[in-house]
Amino acid sequence: MEELKHELLVELLAAANVGWWKAEVEKKRYVCSKLIVDLLGLPQPEISFEDFNRYIADETRPPTEFQPFEKLYPQREGVYLLRTPHGHVWTRSKICMEKTDENGAVLLYGLVEIIESPESVSARQALKESERILHNIYKNLPVGIELYDKNGILIDLNDKEMELFHLKSKDALMGINLFENPIFPPHMREKIRKHEDADFAFRYDFAKIGAYYQTEKREGSIDLVTKVTTLYDEHHNPINFLLIHADHTEEIVANNRVQEFENLFELVGDYAKVGYAYYNLYTRNGYASKSWYHNVGENESLPVQDIAGIYQHIHPEDREKIIGFLRNAQRGLKHKFNREVRILRGDGSCTWTHVNLFVRKYAPEEGMIEIVSINYDITTLKCTEEKLTKALDKVEEVDRMKSAFIDSMSHEIRTPLNAIVGFSSLLPSVENKADQEEFIKLIKHNTDLLLKLVNDVLDVARMESGGFDLKVAWFDPAELMQECVEDEKQNIPPQVVLTAAGFPQGCMVEADRTRIKQVVSNLLSNALKNTRKGEVEITGRVDEEGIEIRVSDTGQGIPADMLERIFKRFEKVDSFQQGVGLGLPISRAILQKMGGKIKVESTVGIGSTFIIQIPCKTHS
Question: What are φ and ψ of residue 530, in 5° steps?
Answer without folding.
Answer: -105, 10
